[in-house]
Write a structure and sequence with these properties.
Number of helices: 5
Structural class: mainly alpha
Strand content: 5-15%
Largest sheet: 2 strands, antiparallel
Helix content: 55-70%
Shape: elongated
Order of helices and strands: HEEHHHH
Number of strands: 2
Length: 114
């Protein structure tokens, strides 16, 4: 007995919220498939294309600016308490944190420009 294409194959439809660039090909699976094998195949495809070290370095870029600002606020607060210059040191180190955060961010982005 021959099956029609609609009976022989099932398709996987991805939700719109997923990043489609990670799945550049249309995936058509037989209805009777070993899903454990399929998951391992998809993981191998995904991770073979991406270098995990580079992914972790790029994801750390998101923390550069906020962490610089927080460090600047902390030092400004401590120096304000020590010298009694409330709020001038806090403002100065807050601005220095912003500047150093953007400097670090741009320097790291230049490394990944290629």
């Amino acid at each position: 007995m021959q099956q029609t294409p609609s009976e022989a194959y099932g398709t996987i439809c991805w939700e719109e919220s997923l990043d489609i660039s990670l799945f550049p090909t249309i995936i058509v699976l037989p209805l009777k498939v070993d899903y454990q094998t399929w998951i391992k195949t998809m993981q191998n495809r995904l991770f073979s294309k991406m270098d995990l070290k580079k992914i972790s370095e790029i994801s750390s870029l998101a923390l550069m600016l906020p962490s610089s600002i927080i460090v600047g606020l902390f030092f400004g607060y401590v120096l304000d308490k020590a010298f009694g210059t409330h709020p001038w040191m806090l403002i100065a180190f807050f601005l220095l944190g912003i500047v150093s955060g953007f400097y670090s961010l741009f320097r790291a982005l230049k490394k990944y420009k290629d």
